[in-house]
Design brief:
With about 425 residues, the chain is an all-alpha fold. It is built from 17 helices and 4 strands.
Length: about 425
């Protein structure tokens, strides 16, 4: 390969994933400066991955359909919180309560997604900003519902309402009698190391079988086997193994992960991948690439875009349920639990290398990892550098909004460059 061509490819790759590499550098710097215990950082990172991965994956379909970052997933989170509230009000506990909340979220999220999609069809080209404003608008309606309609017009019992007044309590407890805390995470927990070894082994077997069945090329098989084997070897190294086998933890117990939660996350990854191979998935891609061409091909562009938003809104609602019941939460902040959902999920997927018009499962998961690694280490780094942990909170907000602003600027810049190139070619 020509050295100049190789250098150009590397430079193009760095430019395309500049935000990802920037966050890797920032996270590494913060971790080094914060002097946090590695075992603590890994434990907290796993907790945040368990909580947030599903919600971030819910953003992929609208991006592929050319609708940008769907910040209106905040409204899907509101639908989920209505479902959880009703489950608590009716006294439905445990896993059954989670299932009831999920079932309520399905029609509510679909309805909200339909309305969002119709509105975003009126503001083509401005969907990202439009969905963000819709989230703020819906918050006002949500507060009206929880402060006045619930309790005043729709009777609610003392489990959720403010005694002697109207409206819903500011905080609802998911532990105790409600038994909603870790209702999914606590079903089955598996040893992390065993899970990693098993997954690597399964990937190697699948790659070999698919190669001998001539489903994949030799190069793909070799890469899959090599990467899977390398990951397994890394987790067998004494220093890495001690992080997860309980040697460095205070209780001596090995690190476990919520099996059902990660099955749901992997199912969503599979759903996203399989959907793109179906007819509707091909319509999403066609609409995302060029609405004019898609319309000329006989695709109902507006309907396709609405379906994308409806799916995303429902999935985000289910992701919010997973978040609320997860380990380390335990309470339901009635009026504020949904507020940062869109911002943090949008920033996370952009950190993973996604853009306003392109996203994948791997980018969503990598972005979730890097974004929350920065979150975990920022406070400790700010304390060591400036003697004030609050600066870390400000820096988190700055980076969250900054990543989104950068993505919008880069998208607009690429659009201008494409328009100039097309003009020159005429």
């Amino acid at each position: 390969m020509n050295k100049n061509n190789f250098g150009e490819k590397v430079l193009a790759h760095v430019k395309e994933y500049a935000v990802t590499y920037l966050f890797i550098a920032i996270s590494a710097f913060f971790f080094a400066v914060s002097d946090q215990d590695l075992s603590y950082t890994v434990t907290q990172l796993l907790l945040r991955l368990n909580r947030n991965a599903f919600i971030v994956l819910a953003l992929i379909i609208p991006i592929v359909a050319g609708m940008g970052i769907n910040f209106a997933i905040t409204i899907g989170a509101m639908a989920a919180q209505i479902g959880l509230l009703l489950a608590i009000n009716w006294g439905i506990t445990g896993t059954r309560g989670i299932l009831v909340a999920a079932l309520i979220t399905l029609p509510l999220g679909s309805l909200f997604g339909l309305l969002i999609g119709k509105l975003l069809n009126k503001m083509k080209g401005q969907e990202t900003i439009g969905s963000m404003i819709l989230g703020f608008f819906a918050t006002g309606l949500y507060q009206l519902l929880f402060l006045f309609i619930f309790g005043k017009i729709i009777p609610m019992n003392d489990n959720v309402s403010i005694v002697g007044s109207t409206g819903i309590k500011n905080t609802l407890n998911l532990t105790g009698d409600t038994d909603l805390y870790m209702a999914i995470d606590g079903i089955v927990r598996v040893n992390l190391l065993t899970t990693v070894y098993a997954i690597c082994g399964i990937l190697i077997v699948i790659a070999l079988v698919r190669f001998f069945m001539k489903k994949i090329e030799k190069k793909t098989m070799i890469i899959t086997v090599a990467v899977s084997a390398a990951i397994a070897v890394v987790f067998m190294l004494p220093g890495v193994k001690q992080l997860f086998d309980g040697s460095l933890s205070g209780n001596g117990k090995p690190t476990t992960i919520p099996f059902v939660t990660w099955v749901l996350v992997l199912c969503l990854c599979g759903f996203n991948a399989m959907l793109m191979k179906t007819r509707i998935g091909q319509k999403f891609r066609a609409v995302g690439q060029n609405r004019t061409v898609a319309n000329a091909s006989g695709i109902n562009v507006d309907k396709t875009r609405i379906i994308a938003i409806m799916i995303s809104t429902v999935l985000a609602g289910w992701g919010q349920i997973i978040f609320m019941q997860s380990e380390g939460i335990g309470t339901f902040q009635t009026y504020s639990a949904h507020e940062q959902v869109g911002l943090y999920a949008g920033a996370a997927i952009l950190v993973g290398g996604a853009s306003i018009d392109r996203a994948s499962n791997s980018q969503a998961l990598i972005g979730t990892f890097l974004f929350h690694l920065m979150f975990i280490t920022a406070t400790g780094a700010a304390t060591r550098l400036f003697g004030d942990s609050a600066i870390g909170e400000y820096f988190r907000a700055f980076l969250s909004y900054g990543v989104i602003a950068l993505a919008l600027v880069m998208y607009a810049w690429r659009g201008v460059k494409s328009a100039k190139r097309a003009k020159r070619e005429r």
